[in-house]
Amino acid sequence: MSIGSHEALDRFAHTLADAAGAAILPWYRALPAVDDKGSALGFDPVTAADRAGERAIRDLIQANHPEHGIIGEEFGRLNADAEHVWVIDPIDGTKSFIAGQPVWGTLIARLHHGRAVFGLNDQPYLKERYWGDGSRAFGSRENQVFPLSTRRCADLGQASVWVSSSIARDPACHAAVEHLARNVRMLVYGGDCFSLPMLAAGHIDIAIGWGGFEIYDIAAHIPIVTGAGGVVTALDGTDPLHADGMIALGDPTLLPATLDRLRWPERVQRKV
Hints:
The chain has nine helices and 15 strands. By secondary structure, it is an alpha+beta fold. The strands form three sheets. The protein has an eight-stranded mixed β-sheet, sandwiched between helices. A five-stranded mixed β-sheet has the order 12-11-13-15-14. The protein has a two-stranded antiparallel sheet with strand order 1-2. The chain is globular.
């Protein structure tokens, strides 16, 4: 496939995000009914907004690229062995969504032969969008586009760290992160998917997530963060795409020190 066709598909991802945002926004702060999908980690909410957003994306893909595969959080897998596969999380941060907090986003990734080659994170309420292809990354606010670049921070003691709040529900994982907290400048819990574009934009240095992760929680972040100059790994420093958690770093030189200070229980380092 030619470079030009890849560029066309990357543009198509923005069309998908526009459609998802139009489907989701009418439900935001409108107190939608909430169902509990249930998981080992407790309350796992889904709303009509999640389903409407994913359906809007899937309908466009199937209408324009029926040969492509789809992996979505709400409606599962379709032709997942295709050359091009779209990975969709219509609302990453549904708990924040139903609480009226704006730190949720629509995640859209494109895999080419199983590798994440494009990622997009859209927050339609704030009119902010972030995207990257592994070599470059950009953001837009009110339709004004700007390049993304992580900040250099070679000293762990000067690092600002954001951690998914789900980690606090597991005592052993919480202890691992609190050990890291004693070695960094600042550690904050929360932020959902919004912490990753903030890292790509140079506002924070490390973002850590764990707890029931699937490919649609991770895939879109990889090309954005790496395109901005950072790195994304699994919790043990290996390939993150199919892992149960991730560490993103704005300055890749921080990875050895970060892994050394984190003392994860062995059971969380890789999916079984």
